[in-house]
Fold this sequence. Notes:
single chain; alpha+beta; eight-stranded mixed sheet; 6 helices
Amino acid sequence: MGEKRMIQAERLRLWPLEHCDLGKNYQWANDMELCRYAGALPMPKSLNDLEGWFASANNNPETSIFAIKLNNGTYIGNIEIRNLDLRCANCELGIILGETSMHGKGYGQEAVMALCGFVFNQLRLHRVSVHVLEFNERAAHMFTKCGFVQEGTEREAFWSDGRYWDVHIFSLLESEFRSRELKSAATD
């Protein structure tokens, strides 16, 4: 995706994920509850596993992972662009707030909106989508607050906890993002 740079929001910054961030990722990757909500395999992960993940992500032109850091430098999670398709002008977004003490404070919503601003303004994409597991009501609520629209469901597409779960697909179009920006500017 070319040169990566910091994306500034009001209370946080999105930095390209760096090798020094792997320690926190190791902790989060071995938190089985976080893995469940992220849709990750609930298998213990070694530092070597994370090194491989980091190298693979850095060598994939269709993926960019950003560390979510508060303005004071506290590292609270990751947000990523994946499956970048420049021909069709769309991508998928993924987010995890690994620091559970930061849940419910609007940081996820702020990070999503900052990344969407980057995607629509800098990359000039048309559509961003996200997959949300049926049981992850907090994520569904957050994406809806960000203006994403549920457009479909992959029925029983995810296996967890001894059963199959639906996966909901949400998307945000550039025009919807622009409309939201105008409404926000009008209320400021």
